[in-house]
Amino acid sequence: MKVIQHLNKSKSTLFSFEILPPLKGKRIESIYESIDPLLEFSPSFINVTYHREEYIYKKREGGYLEKISVRKRPGTVGICAAIINKYKIDTVPHLICGGFTKEETENALIDLQFLGIDNLLALRGDAVKTEGTFIPEPGGNEHALDLVKQVIALNNGKYLYEEDATDLSSSSSFCVGVAGYPEKHFECPNFSSDLKHLKAKVEAGAEYIVTQLFYDNEKYFSYVKMCREAGITVPIIPGIKPISNKKQLHSLPKFFHIEVPEALSDAMEKSNDDNKLKEIGIEWGINQCKELVKGGAPCIHFYTMGKSESVKRIAKEIF
Ligand code: FAD
């Protein structure tokens, strides 16, 4: 079933979560071990992230350095298919622009279609670590908007280079979600242009939005308000990641360009006890989620990042 159907059908806040493919060489069972503890909350769908290649340098004979492209977490599509097969739960693979030509994207979409996966989250992806800014693949999509347009074209039976050969019997029917940023996307000069770009993704056919993680609900509620005022009417799903250690007070703002509220950082700075720190994060998450449910969030989407314990404790209080 499509995410939008889950959202439209439900009268209460849904539960969903996101997992990362395991590091190359790890067993698929490590994925099941992170899903099993959360099954009791009946997730409506499970997202699986996509990780593009990174470049490493290997020292070769004679001392020269060889630049090698590696993908540390392959397997997004295979994991989605395995989850559907094992748990009969809908999956949402993330598909990115970075590293894909349009043709490769089309082939990936055809794979998904043949596997019976009719959801996807369309993203641009970040810059490769060794490059300062995002550089699209030659012949690839530049913005998430372009990817949304490509998927919707395929939904209408329009394949690349065969614009006139419309054969609706083989068209796809993907439900497309896109990303939104309650604290603004870090590259965008201001909120109003970020919202304009978000609106363009929705007008191109995205049916819902999942937000970047945040710790201050006021930022989510005011973002929803701004979106509505800008004419964006689709469901906006808040993304929640329980904080669990002190290091994250610095790494989360650095990697996700978000703020950790003073009350939360102060509480965490005061302790050096790992268990206590985890408890502070869980308590914050419970309060955040209770307020989000009360405020009418259509679904709460948890970023588990392979760790389900805190999410389970929060979900027990909410769902
Ligand atoms: P876009 O919508 O393309 O926006 C990127 C920037 O460009 C924004 O500043 C936007 O305002 C601007 N922009 C958009 N359109 C235009 C235009 N036409 N002209 C000028 N500027 C424009 N990354 C991964 O690699 N793998 C994942 O699995 C993954 N999952 C994610 C899941 C969620 C819920 C979120 C919120 C992010 C995820 N990301 C993932 C990270 C994401 O790829 C980055 O945040 C990326 O920097 C932006 O992606 P986007 O889809 O929002 O891009």
Write a structural description:
- The protein has 319 residues and is an alpha/beta fold.
- Helix content is 39%, strand content 18%.
- The chain contains 11 helices and 10 strands.
- It has an 8-stranded parallel β-barrel, surrounded by 6 helices. Strands 3-4 form a two-stranded antiparallel ribbon.
- Helix 4 crosses helix 5 and helix 10 packs parallel to helix 11.
- Flavin-adenine dinucleotide binds next to strand 5, helix 5, helix 6 and strand 8.
Provide the fold topology.
Blueprint (H helix, E strand, L loop, with lengths): L2 H7 L4 E6 L9 H7 L9 E4 L5 E6 L5 E6 L5 H12 L2 E7 L5 H13 L4 E5 L20 H12 L19 E6 L10 H13 L4 E6 L3 H13 L6 E5 L7 H9 L5 H8 L4 H21 L4 E5 L5 H10 L1
Bound molecules: flavin-adenine dinucleotide.
Please provide the ordered H/E string of secondary-structure elements: HEHEEEHEHEHEHEHEHHHEH
List bound small molecules.
flavin-adenine dinucleotide
Strand content: 15-25%
Which structural class fits the helix and strand makeup? alpha/beta
Instruction: Compute the CA-based radius of gyration.
Output: 20 Å
Largest sheet: 8 strands, parallel, barrel
Can you give the helix content as a percent range?
25-40%
